[in-house]
Fold this protein.
Amino acid sequence: MSGQGQVSFRNIVKMHGEFAALKGVNFDIKPGEFFALLGPSGSGKSTTLRILAGLDAPTAGRVLIDDKDVTSTDARDRDIAMVFQSYALYPHMTVAENIAFPLEMARLPKAQIASAVQEAARKVKIDHLLDRKPGQLSGGQQQRCALARAIVRKARLFLLDEPLSNLDAKLRLETRAELKKLQRSLGVTAVYVTHDQEEAMTLADRMAVFMSGEIQQIGTPAEVFARPNSIDIAGFIGNPPMNLVPARYVDGDVIIAGHRLKTTTTTAGKRDVVVGLRPGALRMTEGGLGARVDLIEDLGDTAVLDLDCAGTMIRMRVSDGNIPSEGETISITARPRDIHLFDPTTRMRL
Amino acid sequence: MTAKRLRAIALLAISMVFLLAWAFPIIWSVLNSLKTDSDVLAYPPKLVFSPTLEAYRDVLFGSGSILPNLLSSAIISVGTTIVTMLMAVPAAYALARLRFRGKKFAGFYVLATQMLPPVGIIIPYFLVLRNIGWIDTYQGIILIYLSFSLPFAIWLLVSYFEDIPFEMEEAAYLDGASRLKTLWRIIIPQVRGGIAVTVVFVFLNAWNEFLFAVVLSGNTVRPVTVAMFNFVSVEQTLWAKLAAVSVLAMLPVVVLGVVAQKHIVKGLTVGAVKGGGRR
């Protein structure tokens, strides 16, 4: 491996005219880490990746790779490999020629190129397709070809821009698992852009969650899931995402639809809050918050209930064998540590 | 007989009429080039005659051989095509890809030059060439041909370059290729259909050109389109020889058309099936 693959973004700003695509982004990626840039479309995650790749220049700020300032280094001199969302395979070249291209550009001897191409193709299981043109491959095979072209060079950084979004659902799950194994076996630093929180949760060692040009939270998937920093993240992570219910905070309790729930907070005082409740953290109980079952989405082993709690919509996940019927009125509650409190004005966690 | 069948026959009949109208001058030329001068003038036209290659022998190897003129035409057309393509490919790429000041104006200018009536600029061209002593020279004629072949080629090529996704180039940069290498190894191979179409059009325009050639050429450089008129004089028109020259002048065009046919059809339909032929 030619480098360690350590990345730092220092106050990166990107302006498109008056519009700030990135408003001062900071993060550090450790060598060998699988780092996801997660966010809805237009949140700045792809711009961040493009700046890291050297395809776009930041308006302000510095990009460091392995402690070296590369902010004004050309893309081709950064020793970075990338898989594009469209794969960007060269249609006039065979699979073998596609994979060999980065090595040819590095002026490696022919024999060395041939064996490296074989090895990379074998790793992604397309070594039987080397003579085909990209147009003769299925979507999944094209994706593997793009992967092979990226890993063949053993670059210090491996960037992936929504690499799974053009695959069908089943293939996406398979490839997701293989991608993780591949990254582990190569030991290379991977930066992965996705809008799919499930992909980020399953793949990433750590992730940065982007919201409108800013990173709102950086952490392991478990940390972000357990303690989302803001209402926006809470509403973005998890499937279905966290219920966000306007409520009144009174001396350590929250009042939702007339019902009192205990929180872990003990601060005295009264204020408006937004209460976050994970669908899976809700329990059925006696004498809890009354809720009418409006709709049941049966997912097989679990079901998601749409509950009407005196006009407030709450979604709840229940396990198989515990499913009430539609129209029934049930009573629900949540443990104090499962109740998240957010400020309705700043939208941040309290 | 079904309505479908009737329509097919009607379509066939209509296309036969068009084909005949289009092919008539060619058939006429081919037939007359094989006749003797007296047979040509026979009335009613002789459909049955003993074909002879005499006209061809005369125009190729006789006293007024057009071989030097065919060579002139070839030098002018090939020269124009090569210089045009060498300049048009990078220019079209730049117009399609790069952002630079005055790009919009440059694009408009390229197209605007196509709208000038050629007759209006012959005299200035003639004066300019005469002043620099380039009348009746290859460089003179090629230079003038460039003035309309270059904008046309650029305009045609830009759309082919624009069809190639940006990501293709970005992938090449990240793979370590320079901009020139990317253009040469990644972009140009993908627009070769468009390049073939452009080459054919530029070559044909130069080969067929008459108006500028008749004014700007002379005794040294006289392309075949101009030389043909040696066979037309006040006293008589040598129809058989004129027809033979026409057929000879058509040959390279036909050969080029057949050779490049596959590329041309592909190149012309690229826009119709956007993305279809790409991956």
Observations:
- Chain B has one domain: 67-269.
